[in-house]
Request: fold
Amino acid sequence: MEFIEHYQNLISAAVGENRFTEGPEELYEPVNYIISHGGKRLRPVMVLMACDLFDGDLRQAIRPALAIEYFHNFTLIHDDIMDNATLRRGQPTVHSVYGANTGILSGDVLLMKSYKFFEELQPELFKRCVSIFTETGILVCEGQQHDVNFETRNDVTYDEYIMMISHKTGVLIGAALKIGALIGGSSEKDAEALYQFGLHVGVAFQIMDDYLDVYGDMKALGKKQAGDIYENKKTALYLLAMEHADEEERKELDYWYSKKTDNIDKVYSVENIFRHVKVEEKALRLVQKHSELAHRYLDEINVSADKKKPFLQLAGQLLQRQF
Amino acid sequence: MEFIEHYQNLISAAVGENRFTEGPEELYEPVNYIISHGGKRLRPVMVLMACDLFDGDLRQAIRPALAIEYFHNFTLIHDDIMDNATLRRGQPTVHSVYGANTGILSGDVLLMKSYKFFEELQPELFKRCVSIFTETGILVCEGQQHDVNFETRNDVTYDEYIMMISHKTGVLIGAALKIGALIGGSSEKDAEALYQFGLHVGVAFQIMDDYLDVYGDMKALGKKQAGDIYENKKTALYLLAMEHADEEERKELDYWYSKKTDNIDKVYSVENIFRHVKVEEKALRLVQKHSELAHRYLDEINVSADKKKPFLQLAGQLLQRQF
Reply:
């Protein structure tokens, strides 16, 4: 999609211009390290897209777009420490290169630096955007904690799971779009509708992610088939299965999900239950549901259908993993 | 000092009213835990004092005062993880009770929650205060990193040390006063003068802290005599000694400061060099210098001398460790 590339180039240039050159080097080198690995930078792209949707001044949106991207990277640095992760975007994680202490402190300074990117906005808009940004950051932390809690809980419900992934993934996409919309001059109502669009795209994306772990082409995705099952992750598939399985199947799921094993029988058994309770179909229906909800919110927005097309394209391709 | 207690009571009440009752509990319990241990809460007290100095509306200053206090506690949680500290204010540190991962995430959410405490200010004031707050947070992180760097560097200069303690201690005191002043309706010029007052009080306090480690009444302070020397800490005393010692003494200091030992000879030898190069006198002169600078900035402020008295009292008692 050409329009995405156009926005990505704008973000890339801004990232380049905003490299941290101040000292102490030990603090900012790790920050420049993770930012430079980039990734697809779809969140800041969404800030720009939303600003454009309302014919706003893109130049005003670029630094706030960086705030969203830098915030995201702050969460990655700290999450990787907590998860003991060694690789991120194919590169060694910040803490595995620089140590956990530097990771903590570099993450902290990156979060605060991201607040600075709103400072060129006039006071009303600054206050509005910073408040959304702060609220979103809090929800992301809460989502992360719920995710941690779910690992050791055996009674997580499907609704709790949706709440958790909304917070971990959805709200930041929503906030990126809402902030971009407000900077672009949208009404509060339109900005909120775009937020909800982003939230549901995020949720649909996350359920799709769970789906693809079992039913996707893992070669194309570069992941291990059924990795979530091996890892005992309480994904949407697992929760749907627990909800619809009979007593005996539930016991079997409990059995396998309390074991840490590379035994392929585990995957066969679990997938067998998934098949029996039609998890594949149910998961796809839920992706569809959140996708439709997203579209309905997009429909509500008071701009021409033509201008909304990029958002439909982006959502569609996200779900098809074409990024 | 009665006026301090009055402000402390206001802060205490506000802390009580703003306990975090939302979930997930695993995230907010550690936050309530550290906040409830209190300490003297002089930073938020300073926000209120500064607001009062300009006859401002104290009710407007209370939540921003909490922002300063909560930010400070965020830094304590993360610093204690980095320092592997087990005790803080006589209580087990957050990470030693709840684990490092919870400490990281609770610290993060506390930082973002602290931004929320500015949201009742009108947009211009919100933007001004949040910008100062962000800039201060960045400087505090930088100061922390410099402090870490200094541990392994052998060429730290006295000026670098002053810069480091300004960032680690001074700027947050300065920012507390400046934010309180602006909320109280002060001019930018007066707010900046009060910031400088706080900065220099902070620096004087920190040098005094180094001084008391060797020359203070350790029983009264509840610390180990010469603990900084045993720990090889590059304090103001050490840096003054290195600057003024002769070649041979410098070698001896290098020798002792590269050793980790409980040998009392280390303290005798180091204190002997301190005596020879008149470190005690020089350190006190520097405390005096920053104290005088602070007073000079206070003098500049366009309010009656009478109203400034509490600030002189506070600074005086801080330096005499009467808190």
